Amino acid sequence: MASIRSKSCNKSIMFLIVFVLFYMQQCKCSELELLLSMKTSMNDPLGSLHDWIPSQSFCHWNGVVCDDLSHVAKIELSGKNLSGKLSETIFNLPYVESVDLSNNQLSGEIPGNFSSCLALKFLNLSNNNFTGPLPQGSRIPFLETLDLSNNMILGKIPENIGLFSRLKVLDFGGNVLVGSIPKSIANISSLEFLTLASNQLIGEIPRELGLMKKLKLIYLGYNNFSGGIPEEIGELTSLYHLDLVYNNLTGEIPSSLGNLTNLQYLFLYINKLTGPIPRSLFNLKKMVSLDLSDNFLSGEIPELISQLQNLEVLQLFANNFTGRIPNALTSLSHLQVLQLWNNKLSGEIPKDIGKYNNLTILDLSTNNLTGKIPQTICYSGHLFKLILFSNSLQGEIPLSLSHCKSLQRVRLQNNQLTGELSPEFTKLPLVYFLDISGNNLLGSISERKWDMPALQMLNLSRNRFSGTLPDSFGSKNLENMDLSENGFYGTIPENFWQLSELMELKLRGNKLSGEMPDELSSCKKIVSLDLSDNQLSGQIPISLSEMPVLSFLDLSMNQLSGEIPPNLGKVESLVLVNISHNHFHGNLPSTGAFLAINSSAVVGNQLCGRGDDITSGLPPCKSLKKSSIWWFFLTCLLGILVLLVFSALVVVFIQRRREMKLKKVESTQDGNWEIQFFEAKASKSITLDDILRIGVSYKGFSEICNTQIFVKQLNLNIPTSFWTNIQELGNIRHPNVVKILAACKSEKGGILVYEYVEGKNLSEAIRVMSWERRQKVAVGISRALKYLHCSCSPSIFVGELSPRKVIIDGKDEARLRLSLPTIVFTTSKGFISTAYVGPEIAEYKGISEKSDIYGFGLLLIELLTGRNPADAEFGKRESIVDWARYCYSECHLETWVEPIMKSDAMNNKNKMVEMMNVALQCTASEPAARPCASDVAKTLDSFVRSNSCGLGLKRCSSV
Questions:
Q1: pLDDT for residue 25
Q2: Where are the alpha helices (DSSP H) in 209-317?
Q3: How far apart are alpha carbons 330 and 230 in whole angstroms?
Q4: pLDDT tens per residue, range 887-919
Q5: What is the Cα gyration radius of the chain?
Q6: Which range, 627-631, 670-674, 907-911, has the best average confidence (pLDDT)?
Q7: Which stretches of 746-796 are DSSP H helices?
């Protein structure tokens, strides 16, 4: 009997072993089939799945990791540029514990069988293009990480989200989630990292978060939460990072936050918080970065701040703080960034500030500070940004600053500083922005050597400087120079012609004499020239009319004489002219900026104007009658001598005008055309047949009579305002805008003829561009926008500011190519179907300056990330902005910067982050919240060569 039982038992064991082996073999076959099914649902442009073939064991496939029993345990295919749908078969793999498909281009909804993967511990689908709702909460017993960030997932957070009870990491940031945070989230008691930032969530932050005792990081920024900060958050003693920025939170900061003894990062900026800083916060001795800026906080900054000995960044700007700057700040040895600007602080700057700190950025501007600038301010040797403007500071600029070789940006304007500039101060090697205007500084600046090779912006105006002007400031990069309202005398140095990058020169209100140097016309980029209120004499140099982008010219209150050069009225870019209170005589030019000149701009001369001119207030010009016979004969003789020359000039002038006028020309093949040239050289070297041959046969350029041109055909529906609008475009002359040479129109359509620019458009060139080249492109486009918006009358709006409209020439200069019909003007209304305009255009609100700024913001995002609104992973065009906002707020630079620039990111992280901040402000959903073109250009010019902290326009100290 025992023998029978033994045999029966052995048979059972053998059967069980065979069954297990059979099941395992079947399971392996099933896993193979599931993986191959997953492969067929995806596109693989990089060939990352090339070895996913049945003839090879899947344990050796790229991106597949097996366990000891040769089952699929992990799938790791991050950043492989995979697209298509995510097959639900991936969640049928019975033993898979980790799935990482982040940073691809997968789309569609997350499969509904997500919760059936019972072995799953780690799931990362971030940075794709998934849509649809979030997966419902489920009791997946081992799931610890769920990262679905940076997609386009819609809808609400499921009410049963608490069923993911074993989660440690939950990241839904950078999606389009709406509604409020379900209270059931508190059931995830093991959660350590909670990120819901950059969505459209509303309502109050649930108090139930206080039950989640293991939370280490909370990131709820860039939503629309309202109400107060829950006091219960103060019970999360494991928390080291709390970020609630950019919401509508109100009330006071709870004192309970002082219980968060492990807190290192507290970010509450851009809310509506009121009241004082709770004293309990100064018990948080592990605090590294504290940012409460852009709120309505008040009261004094207490001396208790000395307890935060690990503090590196303190930002309390744009609040209502009063009282003195606490001396206790001087004891914080790790402090690098201190920004208290735009408050109501008074008293003196602590005399030992910087002595024991490690300051890199100090901004105390726009307060009521008095006393002297401390000598210790640059003791660290790392200070690169010093911003103290708009206070009541006195005394001399500290000698120690003259030895602060790390300085890059210095703004001390609008104080009461006195004394002279030390010789060492004018030799600071890295300073690119220096503004010490509006003080009582004195002495001669030409007696010391200026050697500031990085200098781009120099403002010494409204001081008491005297002596002659120096021949050079040691920099060929100067773009803006303002030396007005001082006591400078002597002549304008001829060497100023070497300032080839100069865009603005202001010498108003000095005692300069002599003639205007003819060499100034060599500064081809000057937009604004102000020499008013001096003692200049002689005539206006004729060469001034050769300055291609001159828009503002003020020569008033001098001793200039002679006639106004007629060609000055032909400078297309010139908008405002003031020549009042000089000794000019003769005719006022009747073209260009002189056509409707105001009487206040010509008064105090001996000029005459047209008979029908009522705006200038000048008497009409009359022929002078000479009764003397000798004068008559002398005039005749002089007339005979110049008659031939004059006649020749008249013929040339008439011929040129005739060539430049709108012509009707008949083509042998295409019927009647109207053609308008905007450049005399083009009218002589290009014929209609040449244009039509190019336009019909191909789009490109041709060399015709030694003239290279680019031809672009327009749509058939040419607007009635074609000639009015195109005339404005044809007159544009700016180094960052491609010239339009001619325009043609017929019943069949229109053609624009451009100068040919050797290079590629930005969409083609961007992939191989370094960080330095991209910076230069961004600055160039911003300058073009500033000119079009601020210097043209009426303002010109680009409409579609896309990469294909930007040409990168051989010098890496960005050249913007304007065209119709996407160009409209101030009074125009229209709709453009393109991703590179503001979202308000879809509501038929018309093109505006702010819609151009939105398009420029998208270009900046593309320059930084390499991604554009048309990429598949973003879906709708707004998604790239949502994605960028999340990336910026997360500050994980390596996850969003263009891969080719990752090697540059180590040394340029702050610049990249700050440029992204500018991009996000430019792409604000509300047009009124976007900056204007002049502010954008100024900001980019200011920080691209600095090591700024990434605060941009809204949050930058250099307001």
A1: 39
A2: none
A3: 33
A4: 766 556 667 778 778 777 777 777 887 888 888
A5: 35
A6: 907-911
A7: 762-765, 771-786
Please count the CA atoms within 13 angstroms of the CA of 540 that sit on its side-chain side. 27
Q: How far apart are the first and last CA of the chain?
A: 99
- pLDDT tens, position by position, 381-429: 999 999 999 999 999 999 999 999 999 999 999 999 999 999 999 999 9
Q: What share of the chain is helix, strand, coil (3-state, %, to 5)?
A: 30, 25, 45
Distances 574 to 359, 552, 578, 585, 594 between C-alpha atoms, Å: 45, 6, 11, 21, 9
DSSP 474-508: S-S---EEE--SSEEEEPPPGGGGG-TT--EEE--
641 by DSSP, 3-state: which?
A: helix
Q: What distance in Å separates the CA atoms of residue 375 and residue 353, rounded to the nearest whole number? A: 9
Question: Three-state SS for 904?
Answer: helix
C-alpha closest to that of 333 among 292, 400, 291, 379: 379
Q: Which pLDDT does position 13 carry in this prediction?
A: 44
- What is the CA angle 55-57-61, rounded to 5? 105
The pairing of strands 487-490 and 464-467 is parallel
- Are the beta carbons of 367 and 318 closer than 8 angstroms? no
The answer to whether the predicted template modeling score (pTM) of the entire model surpasses 0.70 is no
pLDDT (average), residues 929-937: 81
DSSP codes joined into one string, 129-183 = EEESPPPPP---TT--EEE--SS--EEEPPTTGGG-TT-SEEE--SSEEEE---G
Q: How many CB atoms lie within 10 A of CB 42?
A: 20
Q: Is residue 671 classed as helix, strand or coil in its secondary structure?
A: strand
Distance separating alpha carbons of residues 433 and 431, to the nearest angstrom:
6
Looking at per-residue pLDDT, the higher value among 587 and 639 belongs to 587
Assigned token pair, 841: 């255009």
789-793 contact pairs (CB < 8 A, 24+)? 789/849, 789/852, 789/932, 789/933, 789/934, 790/932, 790/933, 790/934, 791/527, 791/549, 791/551, 791/552, 791/573, 791/575, 792/573, 792/575, 792/728, 792/732, 793/575
- Decide: helix, strand or coil at residue 85: strand
Q: How far apart are CA 534 and CA 647, in angstroms?
A: 39
Average pLDDT in the chain: 82
- Cα 737 to Cα 482, 668, 730, 810, distances in angstroms: 26, 34, 11, 15
- Are the C-beta atoms of 293 and 266 separated by less than 8 Å? no
Query: CB of 858 within 8 A of CB of 880?
Result: yes
Residue 452: closest CA among 407, 388, 488, 411: 407
Evaluate whether 952 touches 919 at the Cβ level (below 8 Å).
no
Tokens of 758: 């050797």
Tally of CA atoms within 13 A in the half-sphere of 904 that contains its CB:
19
